[in-house]
Amino acid sequence: MSAIAMRNQEAAPADIKMRAAGVDVSYGDKQALFAVNVAIETNTVTALIGPSGCGKSTFLRCLNRMNDVIEGCRVSGQITLDGVDVHDRAIDVVELRARVGMVFQKPNPFPKSVYENVAYGPRIHGLANSRAELDDIVHSSLRRAGLIDEVRDRLDEPGTGLSGGQQQRLCIARAIAVEPEVILMDEPCSALDPIATAKVEELIDDLRERYTIVIVTHSMQQAARVSQRTAFFHLGEVVEQGETGQIFTKPVDERTQAYITGRIG
Ligand SMILES: Nc1ncnc2c1ncn2[C@@H]1O[C@H](COP(=O)(O)OP(=O)(O)O)[C@@H](O)[C@H]1O
Ligand SMILES: [Mg+2]
User: Fold this and answer.
1) CATH, residue 60
2) pLDDT tens, residue by residue, 79-113
3) Structural domain of 182
4) Is the dihedral of CA 124, 126, 127, 129 positive or negative?
């Protein structure tokens, strides 16, 4: 299926952007996820929380098929984007990863200029017809990532010369530049200081207007601050998911209760 055909599929129920149903993942003979069901609502921040090793990153990578590149990793079950299975043979995985972008734990700008970091994706996806159009995309992506004022005069300097927090916002600008619909973030603030973390959290809240966001975090405070929906993972299962306030104040499952009160994890 072409990118255009993918976008034209009959819409899933309007408020569900992505859905995982019965997802199992194994690395070799070790199973990491068990029958995971998660619904990801449109223009919502969904937080994935749970103890280290419970499968949060594994699940996140299912959403844009980044597990495909891990040798020995097998994924089964259904994962849909706008109601279309991301494993459909006809899905172009490069296009999928443009629609479902990713920001990693450690800021990882390319060893190129600030400008080129953001221009790279639009160039390979053919999103700009001229240098002026490319300039527009770069500027608007940096603006939406809350970085433009800090880098306007430094576009030709190396991205790796920015501060850690600026580098992470540059990576967010890079993800935004290819017009994604969903942005996956795997502990995006864990390498940042509290001030840079606050900026990225504020940015996540702004981005929700335009994008659907899934964020893995080991910080329950962060989940409570930035998300509207939370899924709690434990030993490879999703134990509980729902509205963030409810998960943190009135969890139904005693394992969730134990985690949020600090008894496990
Ligand atoms: N590339 C990999 N190869 C083998 N096992 C892995 C790999 N990545 C993760 N795992 C295993 O899968 C389980 C879930 O890991 P992960 O998804 O990274 O958890 P989390 O992000 O919640 O800390 C762990 O037992 C981990 O050791
Ligand atoms: Mg992880």
Assistant:
1) 3.40.50.300
2) 999 999 999 988 999 999 999 999 999 999 999 99
3) 16-260
4) positive
Find the 188 Cα to ligand 2 centroid distance in Å: 11
C-alpha of residue 137 to centroid of ligand 2, in Å? 31
Which pTM was predicted? Answer: 0.92
Domain membership flag for residue 132: yes
CB neighbours of 92 closer than 8 A, spacing ≥ 6?
2, 3
Report if residue 8 sits inside a domain: no
Residue nearest to atom 24 of ligand 1 (CA): 53
In a domain, 52, yes or no: yes
Average of per-residue pLDDT across 197-205: 94
Minimum-distance ligand 1 atom for the alpha carbon of 72:
3
* Burial of 150 from C-beta contacts in 10 A (0-12 / 13-18 / 19+): middle
Q: How many domains does the chain have?
A: 1
Q: Is 1 a member of any domain?
A: no
Give pLDDT tens digits for 31-77: 999 999 999 999 999 999 999 999 999 999 999 999 999 999 999 99
- For 195, the 3-state DSSP assignment is helix
